[in-house]
Amino acid sequence: MRDKWSSKVGFILAAAGSAVGLGNIWKFPYSVGTNGGGVFVALYILFLITIGCPLMLAAITLGRKTQKSVFGAYKSIDHRWSFVGALGVVCGFFILAFYSTVGGWVLYYFKSAITGKLNTTDPNILGDIFAQLMNSPKELIFYQCIFLIVTIVIVLKGISNGIEKASKIMMPALFVMLIIIAIRSITLKGSLEGIRFLFTPDFSKLNMDVAMNALGQMFFSLSIGMGVMVTYGSYLDKKVNILDTALMIPVIDTAVALIAGLATIPAVFALGFEVGEGPKLMFVTLPAVFASMPMGTLFCIVFFLLVIFAALTSSISMLEVAISYFVDEKKKDRVKSTLLIGLVIFLLGIPASLSMGPWENVSFIGKLNFFDLYDKLTSNILLTTGAFFLCVFVGWVLKTEEAIKEIESSNVTFTLAPVWSFLIKYIVPIAIFIILISAYKDFILSLLL
Ligand code: TRP
Predict the structure, then answer these.
(1) Is 360 helix (H, G, I), strand (E, B) or coil?
(2) Does residue 285 carry a pLDDT above 90?
(3) Residue 21 contacts residue 163 (beta carbons within 8 Å)
């Protein structure tokens, strides 16, 4: 028999655990910084409401209806669509490859927090600490490997035990922690400019690039587009009301991203960092915020520990997609497939780990280094493509009428059903399609030039 969530709360925590991760705490703030601030936030929220929430519901419904992991879910309804599931599996490999790189950085920072190395507000020193790590291949690969090993161990322990239990304590703790940091950040002298940067959209900065990145970031943050939510939904009991569940996850996820933005960006302005710094933003800024707090070292240690946890609840969800494909569909041994997949991801991840240091200018093809290649390929291309197919599939193949029946089967009335149906059939696929065209164009050009 297939494993089931022991409770609805367990599902919400695990799904929110998948959604809330480095995408919220690390990627969101720096993407705001590199994509013009408020305009990115505004677009993000617009996409979240019109595209993200409807798709979250579609994904969970598809999983619950078929009771199969993503590949099987598509296949059981129309076998010609199983390629979408396969796309998700491939996507998972690439995301996890660079996700584990950043997971490794967080582990290193956790260690450095313990040894007191991060206890300074000086942007130069903090910048040097990051640069040093980026130029120590041994350390990078070592920590990346540890991160993957921990992910693998948790996944091997099975669905309900490992994931659910730990989520119940760690996720709320992380939330509280972020609020405390945000309060410190916005009370720093000079933080006002940062708050303005976050929440005042400057529409003159609006362009296709920003739209593409906001959409990609939204899918990445919600864990939508590669089948995580389909797979997780498949472990849900038929009695559970998926409607409010599907709404809760985006709300939690976005709250965390915005609070992480408030924790980071105002401090960037107040303490003299660069807002367009990119992937290192969190790693240089937040230690400085801690250093300006009473008991800062302790906060710093606990914070990085909780981030490790949030990253793990996300990474296990990605690994789970790949594994359930090999176990459910290919009837492979769970332990063996997990180890093999882990190894492949580790190897894929090594070039990503070296990409901010020795391999900064090394590329596979074109001008993107491996880290950027994986990032762009997954968020802007694969996830967005996966989300597009998910939408078309639920709208036109499974059909929204069927989906609505599934949603209402747990005795709820879906008042907004006509709106949802209209969005899923017309608005969402067209909107994604338009952005996808420019994403493909952009991506292909960056490979050719
Ligand atoms: N959403 C996670 C984060 O924000 C990352 C993640 C986990 C993910 N599973 C995923 C992203 C599946 C895309 C697809 O950190």
Answers:
(1) coil
(2) yes
(3) no
Q: Is the pLDDT of residue 170 over 90?
A: no
Answer yes or no: are the C-beta atoms of 62 and 398 closer than 8 Å: yes
pLDDT band of residue 347 (cuts 50, 70, 90) is: very high
Above 60 in pLDDT, residue 1? no
Question: In this structure, which amino acid lies at residue 413?
Answer: T
Buried b (16+ CB within 10 A) or exposed e, 99-125: bbbbbbbbbbbbebbeeeebbbbebee
Residues with CB under 6 Å of ligand 1 are: 18-19, 21-24, 95, 220-221, 223, 226, 228, 314, 317-318, 383
What is the rounded average pLDDT for all residues in the chain? Answer: 92
83-92: average pLDDT: 92
CA–CA distances in Å: residue 316 to residues 1, 11, 18, 120, 407: 21, 14, 8, 33, 27
Closest CA relative to residue 354, chosen from 367, 336, 372: 372
- Counting from 1 in the atom list of ligand 1, the atom nearest the Cα of 378 is 13
Read off the pTM: 0.95
Indicate the angle between helix axes 38-47 and 208-222, nearest 10 degrees.
60
Task: Report the C-alpha gap between 264 and 28 in whole angstroms.
Answer: 10
Res 321: pLDDT = 85
Give residue 328's identity as a one-letter amino acid code. D
Find where tokens 């710093």 sit: 300
Is 90 exceeded by the pLDDT of residue 330? no
Domains and CATH numbers, the chain: 8-448 (1.20.1740)
221 Cα: distance to centroid of ligand 1 (angstroms): 6
